[in-house]
């Protein structure tokens, strides 16, 4: 049984601002599911995640942090491909054991 994804904001986000982050309301949008995903489903999920990102007060810092740390998923309104890198297989495998990483 897959573990639910929990959003843990990057360290630059003050704990007093965590409740204002739109990603905390729908963390599953920011990462692909643990099952095959149809293209239409993926496009809808990514669009919904990006829409939440564009309302976020820390969107730019979030995207910069994710790019610098080569995080996978949607961060700052961009996918890892849009940030200009592809996560390694080793990094993707951590998803199955570490569900505390998240998108903001």
UniProtKB/TrEMBL annotation:
Q: Which cofactor does it need?
A: [4Fe-4S] cluster
Main localisation = cytoplasm
The cellular location(s) given in this protein's UniProt record come to: Cytoplasm
UniProt lists compositionally biased (Basic and acidic residues) regions at 95-104
Superkingdom of this entry's organism? Bacteria
Instruction: Enumerate the spans annotated as 4Fe-4S Wbl-type domain.
Output: 22-85
Q: What is this protein called?
A: Transcriptional regulator WhiB
| Biological source species | Streptomyces hiroshimensis
